[in-house]
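[job 0412] stage=fold_complex status=start
inputs:
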Amino acid sequence: MPDTTPRPLGVALIGYAFMGRAHSQAWRTVPAAFDVPETARKVIVGRDEQAVAEAARRLDWEEHATDWREVIARDDIDIVDICTPGFLHAEIAIAALEAGKHVLCEKPLANDTAEAEAMVEAARAATARGQVAALGFTYRRVPALALAKQFVDAGRLGTIRQAKAAYLQDWLVDAQAPMSWRLRKETAGSGALGDIGSHAIDQIQHLTGQQVRAVRGRLATMVPERPGDDGPEPVTVDDAAWANLELDGGAIASVEVSRMATGAKNSLRIELFGSEGALRFDLENPNELWFLDATAPVAEQGYSRVLVTEPEHPYLEAWWPQGHVLGWENAFTHQARDLLLAIRDGDEHRFSPDFAEGLALQRVLDAIIDSDAADGITITL
Amino acid sequence: MPDTTPRPLGVALIGYAFMGRAHSQAWRTVPAAFDVPETARKVIVGRDEQAVAEAARRLDWEEHATDWREVIARDDIDIVDICTPGFLHAEIAIAALEAGKHVLCEKPLANDTAEAEAMVEAARAATARGQVAALGFTYRRVPALALAKQFVDAGRLGTIRQAKAAYLQDWLVDAQAPMSWRLRKETAGSGALGDIGSHAIDQIQHLTGQQVRAVRGRLATMVPERPGDDGPEPVTVDDAAWANLELDGGAIASVEVSRMATGAKNSLRIELFGSEGALRFDLENPNELWFLDATAPVAEQGYSRVLVTEPEHPYLEAWWPQGHVLGWENAFTHQARDLLLAIRDGDEHRFSPDFAEGLALQRVLDAIIDSDAADGITITL
Amino acid sequence: MPDTTPRPLGVALIGYAFMGRAHSQAWRTVPAAFDVPETARKVIVGRDEQAVAEAARRLDWEEHATDWREVIARDDIDIVDICTPGFLHAEIAIAALEAGKHVLCEKPLANDTAEAEAMVEAARAATARGQVAALGFTYRRVPALALAKQFVDAGRLGTIRQAKAAYLQDWLVDAQAPMSWRLRKETAGSGALGDIGSHAIDQIQHLTGQQVRAVRGRLATMVPERPGDDGPEPVTVDDAAWANLELDGGAIASVEVSRMATGAKNSLRIELFGSEGALRFDLENPNELWFLDATAPVAEQGYSRVLVTEPEHPYLEAWWPQGHVLGWENAFTHQARDLLLAIRDGDEHRFSPDFAEGLALQRVLDAIIDSDAADGITITL
Amino acid sequence: MPDTTPRPLGVALIGYAFMGRAHSQAWRTVPAAFDVPETARKVIVGRDEQAVAEAARRLDWEEHATDWREVIARDDIDIVDICTPGFLHAEIAIAALEAGKHVLCEKPLANDTAEAEAMVEAARAATARGQVAALGFTYRRVPALALAKQFVDAGRLGTIRQAKAAYLQDWLVDAQAPMSWRLRKETAGSGALGDIGSHAIDQIQHLTGQQVRAVRGRLATMVPERPGDDGPEPVTVDDAAWANLELDGGAIASVEVSRMATGAKNSLRIELFGSEGALRFDLENPNELWFLDATAPVAEQGYSRVLVTEPEHPYLEAWWPQGHVLGWENAFTHQARDLLLAIRDGDEHRFSPDFAEGLALQRVLDAIIDSDAADGITITL
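[job 0412] stage=fold_complex status=done
writing structure:
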């Protein structure tokens, strides 16, 4: 009689830098925290053999490899987790989906819309075969933001009319900070807008449940050239961007993102203003959600600081007693959990965002760039 | 036929320093803000003729005088407002009450208990004659603290079990700050405990509605000598004090006060923990009251920042539109209002605290000092 | 021999509503707080005789009057303080200036640019004769914002590259709040943009020392009709507005204003990001300025909460000891002080903003409206 | 030739509940984050075979066992990590040390002083043999508190004169919450004082570098009986405790701990006031340290919010880019790192606190209890 015990789901991780480390942490931690299908950290993939071997050792993967195509072809790999730079996403994701693997792809979906469209096509076919194609806008799984979504869905804000999102960082304030691949359009695809603005806009659409239907945008490169290897070199992506978004539910949202916001380290700030309530969040204090119930008696109304660490809060039952806060990294574990549940349960635990959402977001970003190029005029999606 | 139009209530202010300025501001402002009996700022009194004349001009009093006894004897004076140093309170207040005047006396009631007892005696007789004897613990009339009292009285905190009060300042941090009368026991009576600890303890008793029945205390003089006119001189009052209070409703309160709390400017912080709710306040942000409703669903519980500037809030109808915050000084105007209403309406608008409350508080302060002298042992009142 | 003692400067106040009350408070208080030329509160003017008589009594003006033209003609009036609705500003201010009076005019300067230009013309002539024509953007005299200006002027921020200003209120969140003159274009001139957006933009230009040279704007009316006396009536001004501003020093600023920002009461928030420092402010906590020194060692860098209550801080020497905070109203006293010093000292204490600055600001507001009407396109000033 | 490659250090974890899970997370994560000697998670030990087997699977330990004595005897075990309830600490730790193992023991060191003394004795002997005996006051390794220690050690606070520590939780606010072993003296040893007060006092001694030399204390049981299996049962440990501590460097510290502090979830708050600076911390926002430099110009002095996420900050180089905050759990990884470095490097990376520090702390706790029993009188250590 054959052994019918299901073997663990084999995971391959492509990439071992910042995101590769964060995803590794999640794969190591998820079985300890949640009841999920068993997994095996089979192989980590990178181009530099020595470096990826060292990463395998430190990050606790069984093997390392340098050719992602070979890895994707392996029978013992069920999940391909893509943490490479964006320009490689399309090729790897499409190949993995065609090879029958589940895919988790880091954001942004792709560096351009044509690639993104091809990925959506591949995902559609794969999904029909029962595979999962997941996109890693991890902040959706920060518990305070997941709680915000619950509040909105429960109608606690009434009609949302106005939203504000800013994503502010300051790592480019120094005008003498050297040139890098992240500041060249051909390698990075985009600047602050694509990198962090995408998070801000994803949150606005996700939390409000409203989609962008028209945009006005501006981009700016505040330090236009920086020291390169051979003298000053032009910066060809945006340092900061602003957008005004019309949502299809009638709300208007403002977005502001910057890598020049002195003193802001990783400040994704979101505010939602509704007819019956309001919400406020800042990723620098990720365990706090500020909620105002505008239906409460005026004399006691005010923003409540909800410390999102109770067992009643999203994802929290898995962790520590109340008041023991989580860090930035925990959301990656929540993402791994949700991916595994989607693989196990199908539509019952559908993973969002999927590739189609990523493509829709990419079109919003493109429209912002187009608007700026057209002197600020409204671009309708 | 005699003129029966009531003439304005004539006010005499004794003292023109810090408190004299604050009270003058209140007397000038109260008719603009509130519907109160008409007043006339008749005379301001001080020992230094030139200085008090200048004060009369700047602070807008009709006259100045140097002899408070003569002023108290005047028929056109109805209210005597005492802003002198504490060691003069008893003599002036008793004389004014015996002369049939209403009295507002700055805190502390007196420098020692014997004086305070005599004042209470005089006030009792005067009250029986329809006079008002009011004690100026002005912070009771900070709107956020008045709102706190409303919340407690409405049962929103349930049973209060634990209270914390701290009053922290830092103006003595510099060990080379010179000696002054405030640092000598014979002139100042006491140090941080009497000056600011009295506010902290008054708030605890007032807000909880529970009276202190036993104390344990400690006092400390952290910089024991300071530069005087003739070389180093010993500091003979406390720089800081701590107390643990048993209240007659079963709650326990901690008190900490200091003039050496680096970085704290005027930070009177109060926290109340009850079976059904909690409150938090800091005088450095006096327009905010933080309220937690422990009966709300756990997932949305948290301290709410109530910006106490709504017409529904205590004293606020008189002022500006919502969100236009008040300052430290406005509470003095509220105090003047409440005094005038008490004069007009008697028991219907009884003024609290009265002198008896001041005496009771003085006895708590004495007990703290006694406890410290007895190595920390509990002193029962 | 004639009496050469200068008589007090006679003040006439036109208007007795919200702003009239705030200005009255300032005129009553300024001699107590500051060393300024003596003033007399001669006359308060309004159309409703009974109401203005009552205002005179409560707000402590010597007389009341109903005809501002007669008042302006009086020899004993030196200063005309205009607190009427905006559509009356031009007529009164021009007449008063032509009559040789000093003028303080509440913001906005006028309801349209043509009026504003005429006012600037009149002010220019009057200034040449030694008169002062002052515009009441009072928030410039909030001590924390005055301190912010000092920090910028001292170079503590380096080159300012990015600025954010939002002015958020929530008094129109209720869609059933009734129609009023403030929501009709013909009476109000404009909505949130003119009323509160003007403050936000004035601060940006003032603090950065940079002038707007191009704008992109959007306006929105989120609740398009409201209950009127005869059924639903269209709201013809903006509930909220957004703008992106290019400044002539190279900085880019975002502006967002709203009367629909649930939970925000009077939240004028300003952030400045410079190459060497950053600043943050919120009018709901007006005694705090947050300053970040980006030249400090990284390990100890962070926004410092400066409690702006020290004698070393702007305007503070006049008030109370450190830590005793000011309220919204105190800035009006500072404004009266600065006006009186400008009258006394001329260019040495020039009052800013003057009417020309008000006109320039009006043009920025107009350009934002024009941009919105042109689908968001850049309008260059 | 023999294989001289050092084998990984074998770790045995005794206990698999809350602390066992947190320590497991640390052992899994430490090699990914830090350059430390290699470890193997050999065996997890518990009394309930089924439960510990499940724990081994979830928490990723090679084996499970039910007899800690057998485990301690194993040659492949180098480190014994004790996460059992306190009453088992002494027996296990002493046995493990005598068996030549390195030991990490969770706080509190022991349930009584006699046990603690025996443990110190065993540790002294073991240390002489080159073993490490470490005590798990994990909060010392919260980066913000480690940074606080650096600031103090660098003299940035000058002379510390006053300290405040509070550790506030609210999980016992509900008077109907049922009786449990934690509320019985015979099983728990102590209540809030031992459980969380120990952290507060450890921080005070550690951060100030001053040791407690005398105490005054109070304990209270606010809800004296709770529902037990057979009706109401007396609570025999403290719900809350207060202490006033004299430190040997001259500072005075106040301590307040409570499990009844409504709205406080896990709020360990620390404030240090020195002659040249001040610090403030709250464990509910563990990535923030507030530092005030009292030597800065007055006009710009204020508490700076340092977001402790820079590579320059303690332990941070191992983690994520700036602004990506850590959670409560990361400090356990730092603790594992420091233990491994102490094992590798000996005195060069001495681990603190050791058992002797734990005993000294136990004596402070005992003195607080003794003081309360003696009506609050000072107890000298």
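[job 0412] summary: The interface with chain B takes residues 147, 150-151, 290-293, 297-307, 310, 312-313 of chain A (CB under 8 Å).
[job 0412] exit 0
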